[in-house]
Structure formats: C-alpha cells, structure tokens
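U., I forgot to send this yesterday:
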Amino acid sequence: MRTRAALLNAMGLPRPYAVSRPLSIVDVELDPPGAGEVLLSVRAAGLCHSDLSVIDGVRPRPMPMVLGHEGAGVIEALGVGVTDLKVGDHVVAAFVPSCGACEPCRIGRPALCEPGAVSNTAGTLLSGARRLHLHEQALNHHLGVSAFAEYATVARNSVVRIDSTLPFAQAAVFGCAVITGVGAVVNTATLAPDARVAVIGLGGVGLAALLGARAMQASVLIAVDLADSKLSLARELGATHGFNAKDPAWVESVRDLTRGGVDVAFEMAGSVRALDSAYKITRRGGTTVTAGLAPPSAQFTVSQVSIVAEERTIKGSYLGGCDPQRDIPRYIEWFHDGRLPVDRLLSAQLRLDDINAAFDTLADGEAVRQVVVP
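Result:
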C-alpha cells in the first residue's frame, strides 16, 4: 500500500527547518505486516527531541529514514502469529521492541532488550526487515515505529493495547514522554514519599517526570529550565519551586533551599552541563538520575571520592526502565484517576505538512509536546 510519510534523506540541514525542509512529505510504499508484525493506522504522533537529534545529526541514524517514534493509532491488519490483538484495537507504540528471550528481557528489563537495541540502531523492525520503500529503495524505520506517517508496519512487541476512550493525541505521549519521565521516577529512582526532588529540563519528558514525582508525593519539587514559560507551567503542575538555569547562582540557591541538596535530581535536558548541575544539587547519600540523551561523544566527569565518601549514586534511565506492556496501561489509569494530568503537556496539534516549522518551535524550546494528527 501507499502512505504519506515524513522522510529524512540527510541529517544536519541548517535552520530554520521551515526553509531548509529536512523532512519531505512523500508517498512511500509500505509492505503488509510479516510474521509477528501489525499494520497500524497512525492517528497521532508526538514531536520529541529524539526526533530532533536525528534531524540535526546529534544522534546519527542510517538514512533515508521515516521519523517518528511516539505514536498511537488503530490496528488495521495482523501478521502471522499475532493472536493477542484484533483489528480495531487502539494501541500506543513503544520505541524499544522487546524480544522476550534475551537476558535483559528474561530478568524483567525489556527496555534493555538486546535484539531491540540492534534493530533500532540498524533502522529495521525487530525481525530485521524494512517494510518501507521509495522507488524500490528500502527506507529505514525510526526506533521500530516511524510514526510520522498515515500508516506504519511495526513489530507486535512495539505496541501496547490501550483503553479505546483515551483521545489519540493524549495517548501518543504515553509512548515516550510519559513512559520515560514517569518511569524514571517510579522504576529507576523508586522514589519514596516525602522525597525532595529536582527536575532539570522541562520538555515533555521532564514535565512528565515532575508529574510522576508529584504522584509519588514528593514533599519538595524543584523545577529548573531556561524558559520562564515552562517554569510557570511547572508550578501549575505542582512544582513547589522554580529556578531559571540562566541564573549563575541557581545551583547554590537549590542547595541552600534544601540544606545540602535534594534526595533525587533528574537530568532531562540531554546535556553534560545539566548532568553536572544535577549531581551538584544532589545531597550526600542521594541519587542523580539521567534520562537526557547527550551526543554520543559527550563525556561526564565526576570525582570518585565524592561517589565513595558521600555514598552517591548515578543512574541512567532508558525508556524509564519500563515494561511497556505493564506500565503504559498503569500510567493511563493514573491519568484517568487524575494523578497524571498529561493532557497539560500538549502544546499544539498540527498536520504532517507543517512538521518542519514545528521542529523549529521545538528546537527553540517553545513547546512541550506538539502532536501530528490526521
């Protein structure tokens, strides 16, 4: 079948993207689902910094590639062997397909699935196949999803069935922003009630982490960002304090406020400088969690003595340490219960044709979560 899709042919085109147009909206050929795969009618897809980092070349991927990894839609067809879904089911896509058989999957850590990491890096589905083509040229899949399209063929293990009453624009953000941000709080940090928390970087993932920390009853919830507008939103969402990272004294201000540092600091900005600041505002015996993806060449340096003598912990968090099949439905329940008002993260809804200008808005830090809808 043919489907319209946002195709990236080359990384690193200059801004503004509204002029250079790195993403071409073209008709591509999409193969039907193979064994263990499904055909998805994409109804909403969120714009994330992980997409932007491919466009600007910070995180290289094989080209050409149909972008988009945060999506929701409806099952249109089932491949051989898929028996636990049916046509018409509503699903959310998760950007790490889990094989269920490798060591991380067997011990309950599907976010670290080894075949899933290999296929995501190679630009294929979990099976190793590429189901997208343009003029007989194979196109690469973005993180096994390629949601910036009308339709997508994905691995069965890349989707999670959800409540059909949830609007698609809200459902989409559970596949990356929510599962990564809330998961970092719940799974990676295992945040205790009454903890003192700081979140650095208030994009979709950072604000989701803030919502997660509020849901876990943090007593002090500090938001840090470069944009005053995001700090204002953070306060509306439950932050007890806000600091603009442009203030050269903000680190000391946080340490003074918390009398030595927070229990857990979350770095969600994707920069070494932000991670260094997160470590500095973490108290003795505390934990620094990073889910931000800096360029692969970036290096973080820390004093070994401080780790030992202060019993400090630094933890990475990928996909929020989640099991998507378990956690996405659970977080949707929290949304329905009012514990996770993730609808507040939606900045705008747009058409596929407007996607290049929308990435300018994202790069300028002026949006939390923009969502492409049909």
